[in-house]
Amino acid sequence: MTTARITHLIAGTPWEGTSDRTSDVYNPATGEVSGTLDLASADLVDEVVAGAKQAWRDSWGSISFAKRTQVLFKFRELLDRDKQRIAELITREHGKVLDDALGEVTRGLEVAEFACGIPHLLKGGFTENASTGVDVYSIRQSLGVVAVISPFNFPAMVPLWFVPVAVACGNAVVIKPSEKDPSATIAVAELWKEAGLPDGVMNVVNGDKEAVDALLVNPDVKAISFVGSTPIARYVYETGTAHGKRVQALGGAKNHMLVLPDADLDLAADAAINAGFGSAGERCMAISALVAVDSIADDLVARIKDRMGKLRTGDGTRGSDMGPLVTAQHREKVASYVDAGVEAGADLVVDGRTGEFDADGDGFFLAPTLFDQVSPEMSIYTDEIFGPVLSVVRVASYDEGLELINNNPYGNGTAIFTNDGGAARRFQNEVEVGMVGVNVPIPVPVSYYSFGGWKNSLFGDTHAHGAEGVHFFTRGKVVTSRWLDPSHGGVNLGFPQND
Ligand code: NAD
Fold it and tell me: What 3-state class would DSSP assign to 293?
């Protein structure tokens, strides 16, 4: 079978060179290789960064807001036009079911809509007469070339968390997508050319560690937005900042859902299914630890088990509820956690290692798995599994549940299920996690708020999109200005004082 070549997008055009190194891209639902990806050398990355810098200097860095917004509105329109095609690319290389893939593109589209408001978002402050005859005003300017390095699990949405805001702020962009499913990222990036973005402002380099390292040390890359696993996020943050860049590095997660005795248990069971098994658990906001207060734990586990019996796992193009895992290796890794959970003595309520899958070929499937009686030292609790494995940890009370969550080294998302407003209010205040849901299992903030976790889920202090995204992709300048008039005071060598 011949496979498609997948290559870099440089200055809006597919690269025509020849690559020394390539890697395979799979269709996880069939297990077949669907594409061969060119992997960039460090030299090629440097060339692309140089081209992006030139484009920023020649055009985009000094473009008017009127022209910027024309491009942004057009991009938003094109993304909306092509969202189904992009969703199909996601399903083909990632495996998630089509509806879920479409949802991902739609959430990314919201960031493009947010970025269309950039003239308002970048309005500065102005103080007339800060001192007599002296005005002070603030402006925010673009950085130059910025890099976005993204993970496999949201090939459209994660780049879209950053790219529209970076472009709106006047920067040139180099994206390094995951080598596992790059086609959707490339397809979205291609739309910028059609939207009227000058050549060179938008680039995609494919690659692995070599390409990432080249971006981290290149002095012309001024900022890095990274999303991926915690060890790599930490490495990217430390290396990037050591090379003088601003870095936001979003890492892994272990998200807890605390269910109190007064919760609506049907709502909680539905939420646990959606947040535990949607996208085969390959979401940074997936719920992987369900913290149930003892008195309702049996009832809740029974309701979840009942719902799991109705889930269909299979090819994402066939109307299944859940698709395969992204690679054969990842499937084996997740299955090995199920083995480890059994060995550690957790109660395996539903075993996903055996199951029927609606697919042709040899896809990377694992059905939803549920463990009960999980204790905090077991690896199924301590590690981010990133698969369809939900662990129930029983606690005696709200306080014990809160303590468990706050002792966890990750702090991306969490949720509380309760009908007690006071308990929910206490939780939102006391929990040490960046994004909190109240009867909402996956509290991904809308685009005009900012997305990001705490603790080992984020290195750096700036979250994605919203006001923090605009801040990240610009730098501030304050101008103090006086225009001479006949009353000026003449020479004075003292430190300027306000009067
Ligand atoms: P990953 O860390 O393996 O890869 C992320 C990116 O880093 C990819 O582009 C990859 O090519 C690159 N990379 C991998 N190894 C590298 C190395 N040694 N040196 C330099 N670069 C390297 O992550 P993944 O498996 O693609 O994605 C899943 C992870 O991402 C999970 O841990 C998930 O929680 C996390 N994630 C976090 C968020 C968030 O918002 N916090 C969102 C999505 C995904």
Answer: strand
CA–CA distance, 153 with 456 (Å, rounded to integer) = 18
Smallest CA-to-CA distance from 253 within 414, 392, 399 is with 414
* Cα dihedral 463→247→15→58 (10° resolution): 90
Nearest atom in ligand 1 to 457's CA: 41
Find the helix packing angle between 398-407 and 421-430, rounded to 10°: 20
Residue % of the chain over a pLDDT of 90? 95
Give residue 1's pLDDT: 52
Task: Point out the catalytic residue in the list 6, 71, 257, 284.
Answer: 284
User: How many C-beta neighbours within 10 Å does residue 338 have?
Assistant: 22
| Centre of ligand 1 from the C-alpha of residue 326, in Å | 13
| pLDDT > 60? residue 449 | yes
Among protein residues, the one with the nearest Cα to ligand 1's atom 38 is 284
The minimum-distance atom of ligand 1 relative to the CA of 150 is 9
284 is catalytic: yes
Q: To test the ligand 1 pocket, which listed residue (206, 215, 232, 282) has its Cβ within 8 A of the most ligand atoms?
A: 232
Ligand 1: residue whose CA is nearest its atom 23: 228
42 in Cβ contact with 20 (< 8 Å): no
Residue that has been written with the tokens 């472009």 in this structure: 167
Q: Tokens in use for 447?
A: 């685009």
Question: How many other C-beta atoms can be found within 10 angstroms of the C-beta atom of residue 81?
Answer: 11
Alpha carbon 479 to chain centroid distance?
A: 35
**Residue bearing the CA closest to ligand 1, atom 13:** 209
Which phi and psi angles does 439 have, rounded to 5°?
Answer: 60, 25
